[in-house]
Write a structure and sequence with these properties.
The protein is of the alpha+beta class. It contains 7 helices and 22 strands. The strands form 5 sheets. Strands 1, 3, 4, 6, 12, 13, 14 and 22 form an 8-stranded antiparallel beta sheet that branches. Strands 2, 5, 7, 8, 9, 10, 11 and 21 form an 8-stranded antiparallel beta sheet that branches. The structure holds 2-acetamido-2-deoxy-beta-D-glucopyranose. GO terms for molecular function: calcium ion binding; carbohydrate binding; unfolded protein binding.
Length: about 425
């Protein structure tokens, strides 16, 4: 009993300590519309829909914002009380579900300073942090971690692979005051390190000494020609010789065909260019290493991780095939609390979601098999089926063209974003 009491106090202290700056799980129907502000920067942004999608672990809890129109930009954001992460950890967490089998589209969030005009948020609005998965074709399947430092966006130098299946996944970014970070997917660490090592925020600590030069007489040849070695007298042989086995054809007519010459063949005695033997160079000094000096441009900065007046979380992205559901947004200063909340939300619904998806897939496969069986029997009597198939082909081609165009659009947008 006493132990339980202590435990309760510890837990209470723990949660009292954790500060949750923003939490959004879309559990109150249409009320989310009063908290989220759509950008009006463009007139044709895609519509967000509140839904748990085609399969889920819990019809209510799994409701989130879904992109509902293909080949559109999406831009909406939610504001919270401005805060600074100075001296504290910063955790940004959310779930993403690409239930549409995404081909190309963003699944990331951006975190903005308080002065963002939400009604005008767009691809070039200055943000502090961009974090989350991005998929385009087979080549781009990564987790972005971009930090703004002194007005410039810096991309992580490591490649972090994102999930590309159709289930809900939990993405977590932890930024610590000791300038270390951690990226987790489904509450498991996938990458970690330090800000200085994994981004180019600061100029390099050391540079090559501009004053230093390789001495003129520095000998960096490990091997040299052996001066004693001479070319053997019988070395030089022609590369090609007349074929000794060739015979003048019987019907060769010297008047008509000219003088007969045997064809040339490679000379088996040919030894190629003569090269003297190589010996160790007695004057070899090793490879010259350019001496390094402290970079005068470098000065350490222990405040790279700090952001002042963090106040808006935004979804600003492009999607070709829509259907992605965003949910369980969380911004806090407590890593353990984030893990707990991740477990209580995503952790609870992931297994039933996987089951429902599995059942649907099994059902579809069965139906498909039934249809194929029917078709096999019909095929012999009826060839109308073929016309139907042709129509489908036309649809496919159209989709492909759309995709191609959209990918180009996206690249343009992305390169702007990342600069
Ligand atoms: C979250 O769930 C995982 C897996 O069940 C568990 O190992 C971990 O301890 C949990 N985290 C917290 C903070 O309870």
């Amino acid at each position: 009993m006493k132990l339980l009491g202590v435990l309760a106090v510890v837990l209470a202290l723990h949660s009292a300590h954790a500060k949750v700056y923003f939490r959004e799980e879309f559990l109150d129907g249409d009320e989310w519309r009063s908290r989220w502000v759509d950008s009006k920067h463009k007139s044709d942004y895609g519509e967000w829909k509140l839904t748990s999608g085609g399969f889920y672990g819990d019809a209510e809890k799994d409701k989130g914002l879904q992109t509902s129109q293909d080949a559109r930009f999406y831009a909406t954001s939610a504001r919270f009380e401005p805060f600074s992460n100075e001296g504290k950890s910063l955790v940004i967490q959310f779930t993403v579900k690409h239930e549409q089998k995404i081909d190309c589209g963003g699944g990331y969030v951006k975190v903005f300073p308080a002065d963002l005009d939400q009604t005008d948020m767009h691809g070039e609005s200055a943000y502090y942090i961009m974090f989350g998965p991005d998929i385009c074709g087979y080549s781009t399947k990564k987790v972005h971690v971009i930090f703004n430092y002194k007005g410039k966006n810096h991309l992580i130098k490591k490649e972090i692979k994102c999930k590309d299946d159709e289930l809900t996944h939990l993405y977590t970014l932890v930024l610590n005051p000791d300038q270390t970070y951690e990226v987790k997917i489904d509450n498991e660490k996938v990458e970690s390190g330090s800000l200085e090592d994994d981004w180019d925020f600061l100029p390099p600590k050391k540079i090559k000494d501009p004053e230093a030069k390789k001495p003129e007489d520095w000998d960096d040849r490990a091997k040299i020609d052996d001066a004693e070695d001479t070319k053997p007298v019988d070395w030089d042989k022609p590369e090609n010789i007349p074929d000794p086995d060739a015979k003048k054809p019987d019907d060769w007519d010297e008047d008509m065909d000219g003088e007969w010459e045997p064809p040339m063949i490679p000379n088996p005695e040919y030894k190629g260019e003569w090269k003297p033997k190589q010996i160790d160079n007695p004057n070899y000094k090793g490879q010259w290493v350019h001496p390094e000096i402290d970079n005068p441009e470098y000065s350490p900065d222990s405040d790279i991780y700090t952001f002042d007046k963090i106040a808006v979380l935004g979804l600003d992205l492009w999607q070709v095939k829509s259907g992605t559901i965003f949910d369980n947004f969380l911004i806090t200063d407590d890593v353990k609390e984030a893990e707990d909340i991740g477990n209580e939300t995503w952790g609870v619904t992931k297994e039933p979601e996987r089951k429902m998806k599995q059942e649907q897939d099994d059902m579809k496969r069965k139906e498909e098999e039934e249809r194929n069986k029917e078709q096999d029997t019909e095929d012999t009597e009826d060839d109308e089926e073929e016309d139907e198939e042709d129509d489908e082909d036309v649809e496919d081609t159209k989709d492909d063209t759309e995709e191609g165009l959209s990918e180009m659009d996206k690249k343009e947008v992305k390169s702007k974003d990342e600069l």
